[in-house]
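Throughout this chapter, every protein is written as a compact record of paired, labelled lines. An example of such a record is reproduced below:
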Amino acid sequence: MSDYYDAFEMSPVPAPGPDAVPPEPFRGIYGMPAFVTIPTSDLAASVDFWTRGLGFFELFGIPGRVVHLRRWAFQDVLLVPAENVPEQAPAMSVSFACVLSEVDSLVEACRAVRPDSVDGPRDTPWTTRDIAVITPENARIVFTAAKPYDPASQEARNLEAVGITPPGVGHGDNEEHA
């Protein structure tokens, strides 16, 4: 058995491209490999923002204890009641994948619920378009959409400079990054 495999085979994230379609919301139950727990002093307002603004849905809730939200498979958030929340967002963020066609609608939806909640969109040196959102709980959430790979771009040169090349272009085909 090889130590290397194509991780995209198990990921719900579609291949980058202008026509990439987001997967359907995943409503099944699984052992969560990772999740975020976010304390909130107003559970109803938080659920409203996360569902109407960020596009999550309520998978289930235990009244007054927890609301389990999900978007795609492996994008799980637990909102839990708290006496208070930080007065400002921390420098740390949590990122969720999206596709390029969702970026503008996420910005619009978040601004419709909380007008000053979004920063961006902003293109990154590693071929993504990102938006940063500050939620009612003062959590910093980043939605990141992969842009199509352009071998002639500065982003491609940035990636090659750290040893990441497209498949089939030599340099070990990124084996050290697999």
